[in-house]
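G., the chain you wanted modeled:
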Amino acid sequence: MTDGERWVVVDVEATCWHAEEHPALAADQGNETEVIEIGAVRLDPVGAPLGEPFLARIRPRRHPQLSAFCTALTGLTQADVDAAARFPAVLAALFDWAGGDEGLVLAAWGGFDDR
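Predicted structure as tokens:
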């Protein structure tokens, strides 16, 4: 970590489909998924968690109805996402929680999350 940098590790959940449920959407998940939840933690200079974590659900726009597979996989319900804000508002809240985007370094928790 260099001077002025702030590190945040994010973990996201996204819409998803099983091939038996929605073959076309499942086949093109790389282009069709939408983030439906963001969790994040700030790290201090030695990599220890710092302060309270961030957690927000997001209402999907392109595919607003969660699949049964997605609900089972993520634990999120249709009511959870229906009551949530859209992605731009949640992203703004994440940046606000992180202290702005200047000097912010985001790290993904898993291989899917960096996409």
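The beta strands are 6-14, 35-43, 49-57, 104-108.

Shout if anything looks off.
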